[in-house]
Amino acid sequence: MTATDPWADLLAADRALLDRTSTAERVADVLRQRIIDGALSPGTRLSEESAGKALAVSRNTLREAFRLLVHERLLVHEFHRGVFVRVLSADDVIDLYRIRRLLETSAVRRGENPGLVPAVDRAVGDGERAAAEQRWWDVGTANMRFHEALAALAGSPRVNETMRQLLAELRLAFHVMSRPEQFHAPYLGLNREIADLLTDGQREEAAAKLDAYFDAAETQLVAAYREHQG
Amino acid sequence: MTATDPWADLLAADRALLDRTSTAERVADVLRQRIIDGALSPGTRLSEESAGKALAVSRNTLREAFRLLVHERLLVHEFHRGVFVRVLSADDVIDLYRIRRLLETSAVRRGENPGLVPAVDRAVGDGERAAAEQRWWDVGTANMRFHEALAALAGSPRVNETMRQLLAELRLAFHVMSRPEQFHAPYLGLNREIADLLTDGQREEAAAKLDAYFDAAETQLVAAYREHQG
DNA sequence: GATAGAGAATTGTTCAACAATCCCGCAATC
DNA sequence: GATTGCGGGATTGTTGAACAATTCTCTATC
Questions:
Q1: Are B125 and B138 in contact (CB under 8 A)?
Q2: pLDDT tens per residue across span B105-131
Q3: Which residues in chain A are contacts of B67 at CB distance < 8 A?
Q4: Partner-chain residue, chosen from A67, A72, A103, that has the shortest CB–CB distance to B64
Q5: Phi/psi of residue A229, nearest 5 degrees
Q6: What does the alpha-carbon distance between residue A142 and residue A130 come to, in Å, rounded to a whole number?
Q7: Where does the HTH gntR-type domain lie (chains A, B) (predicted)?
Q8: pTM here?
């Protein structure tokens, strides 16, 4: 290398696309997706033999994938008993909301990245459209994207990843409720208010409203959760 | 079980002590410790053969341990090249401080768990004693415990674990600086002020001081980091 | 000094084996 | 009738060897 080439950074950005992922990671990817979309419901046991045969990978590779997802808290590993799709307790849900509240309200209040506000607005719009057409699953997805966008205001890659993980985990809670589809709809109005306040630059007020959202949503979710099989 | 026995919960709490850990986890434990205390410095490559022979475990088990630590961001895994002790960039350090600021200031401001304030005070005391006796390594440890105690005010097991992980990661930064020993000492006074404010119940003021701490510490650390081999 | 290629070393993945542990059903016991 | 003790079968935990894929190293070459 004669000097730092200007195009080097450009190509470096594409490095990730270069298929340099192990099979264990790809296996983890499909399992994660299946857990998130509910095909593998909480409590399900994943035996090494069945899963390995189904995905056509060796037991060792599968175990590597399992470890990954255990670390992400989507699976739990019981020694000599196997791995299971995690079943959240009511306390788990409460804690999940507690840390979300911390991250999201702080991100909104500090709001280091005003350029990311439009993404918040877009997520709210998607949710409203989905609700109008009664696509409840999409309403839920849009709602999660809304909160992801709020956390993203912090401008921290790491907060972003943490949020992604928290929301994936939260899906576990919805999958054991009897009517998860309509859980998010009531909050669409509140989301809209928060987004408008942010667009208007009123961060402190937006943070306050968000705090109120958490009070309401947490209480309702935990109640619904306890009732329907928590 | 005729009914839910009263002592069952008591024993359940001790379940963790029951040695139910895999060798992979134990291997991860010793590697983690070695990384944290600096015996394995950033950039070091851990070959499967050497490490496996040294710890007397098979390659498969070792790879499981590696995965664990990669997920904790203490190691990085390069496909077909091996695993290395992570080298933090200046941007990594900045992001680390950003999320710490979010978590700690929120925890202090909300302070759901006043009963945990004494732990904060104790950590400051330990730091002061260590500084008086010029045990700089212990000053650093006490400082980390101070911040861990601040985050613990949130009363969330999950925040606690996140903090532990963040601080472990931060050790990686100190290990590449030329004089990490004395980095924490200047902040002892500020720590004391924050602890006193908290003991006095003045949470909002404590949070403000903490915010100031982050401004100072981050700037100084990043500067020192960039200079000494960042 | 830079480049290309051959050979060595290392990682990625699979497979087979055995030990350790758990699960389930059945008999024995109180 | 409920609990306990005890097998046999199934599953996980861990190891070792094997081979493919990739990277590293060193030398020859220009």
A1: no
A2: 999 998 888 899 999 999 999 999 999
A3: 24, 64, 67-68
A4: A67
A5: 85, 20
A6: 8
A7: 21-88
A8: 0.88
